[in-house]
Amino acid sequence: LRRIFLAGASGAIGRRLCLLLVRDGWQVTGTTRSEDRAAALRLIARVQARRRPSQSLRLPSPARSKRPEPA
Fold first, then answer.
1. In the predicted structure, residue 10 carries a pLDDT above the cut 80
2. Which of 9, 20, 42, 59 reaches 20 to 30 Å from 30, CA-CA?
3. HSE toward the beta carbon, residue 65, CA cutoff 13 A
């Protein structure tokens, strides 16, 4: 049994890739930001989908607001 982890499994490319991998015999574990999309992946592609906490996707506020210095 071949296994793969796929970040962004519910995205435009991730969904198609999940289907292809499952059809080819892979056991796919993927992440998504939405519980609804995770549930859909579990149904259509037999993917072990896990919701990714949204906090891990955000940069700390100082990093977001800092602009580069003019040259």
1. yes
2. 59
3. 3
